[in-house]
Amino acid sequence: MRIAIIGAGLIGAKRARALASNDVLLAVADRDLSRATALAQVYSADACADWHQVVNRADIDAVVVATTNDALAPITLAAVRAAKHVLVEKPAARNADELAPVAEAVRHSGMTVKVGFNHRFHPALLKAREIFDSPDSGALMYIRARYGHGGRIGYDKEWRADPAIAGGGEMLDQGVHLIDLARWFAGDFPHVAGHVGTFFWKMPVEDNGFAILRTATGQVAHLHASCTEWKNLFSFEIFCRHAKLQIDGLGGSYGIERLTHYQMLPQMGPPATTSWEWPFEDRSWHAEWSDFKNAIAAKRPPCGTIDDALAALRIIDRLYRSA
Q1: b/e per residue, 14-24, with b = 16+ CB within 10 A?
Q2: Distance, CA of 90 to CA of 114 (rounded, Å)
């Protein structure tokens, strides 16, 4: 495919590295032209500061949108109306009301739009999903998950601390991954309770978010997203009637990615335990891009749709209102 990337920061550069060998990056746009130029030069692509020029190019098949949260929805909408496929980074918008018209446009466009929920493509979570789907695990009972980092000096002055740009705080930033993963395993959560609060950072958005989500049939997800974790942490536990699946770490500062499968024995007692580790480069970005391309080719929904993002944002909106 012929690709354009809008937003040449850390994530935009990761997306560029994850492109397939038969893809061509033709254009990079960033409001900071020097940053667009730096990324474009690596791939012999064009650089510009105006994303409109990229979206309306006739020689572009797909657009990657990796901007700040305030620009995600309008750029995605413009790209869809210009008949481009889109991979837009999470959370896809600042809130559900902002994303709803984009989702409506996607449904009538014939374009494939995927949201960047790359955590679904980490090998530990893919393996967990494979085991979860087997009859040996039994029915889901509940999910318990924590995701956090400790920020850095000046964190409260960055764009993620500005509600006009970010739309929210830690529940929207990392918490949206937990909500998306919980929905991936459990389905929709019509019942939402919880709290968001600012405990440490002097900023107008939350630094911690707590959610208790419940499905229509009673399964519960207990989620905590934090930027006062101090030591980076990822822990996602899935409790079924006959098994527990525990994912720890995401690589890098989050520690080695590991899946532990605890299988209940007929006599109960200590479970049969099997563990897998992936002490390698994070390839979730490559796997997610492959799913995006395959979805376009097969004319099927990608794994992580605009409607998945809309459902996650509606949950976060309800948490913000309750707080």
Answers
A1: bbbebbeeebe
A2: 10
Long-range contacts of residues 77-83, Cβ cutoff 8 Å, at least 24 apart: 77/101, 77/102, 77/105, 78/51, 78/52, 79/55, 80/105, 80/106, 80/109, 80/111, 80/113, 81/105, 81/109, 82/55, 82/56, 83/109, 83/111
Dist. CA 166–CA 193, nearest whole Å: 22
Whole-number Å distance between alpha carbons of 244 and 128: 10
Name residue 19's amino acid.
L
CB of 213 closer than 8 Å to CB of 192: yes
Element housing 277 (H / E): strand 272-278
Structure confidence by residue, pLDDT tens digits, 11-45: 999 999 999 999 999 999 999 999 999 999 999 99
134: Cβ–Cβ under 8 A, 6 or more apart, which residues? none
Per residue in 189-236, pLDDT tens? 999 999 999 999 999 999 999 999 999 999 999 999 999 999 999 999
Q: Is-contact 282 250, C-beta < 8 A?
A: yes
CA dist., res. 235 & res. 78, Å (int): 37
Contact 23, 84 (CB under 8 A): no
Q: Residue 177 is encoded by which pair of tokens?
A: 């991954």
Alpha-carbon span 48 to 252, nearest angstrom? 32
Q: Calculate the dihedral angle through the C-alpha atoms of 55, 59, 63, 68, rounding to the nearest 10 degrees.
A: -40
306-322 vs 175-186: helix crossing angle, rounded to 10: 120
Half-sphere exposure in the Cβ direction for 158 (13 Å, CA): 13
- Strand ordering across the sheet containing 85-89: 46-48, 24-29, 2-6, 62-65, 85-89, 113-116
pTM (2 d.p.): 0.97
**Which amino acid, 103?**
A
Rounded Cα distance, 69 and 106, in Å: 19
E-strand ranges in 215-256 read 220-226, 233-240, 243-248
Mind giving me the DSSP string for 102-124? HHHHHHTT---EEEE-GGGGSHH
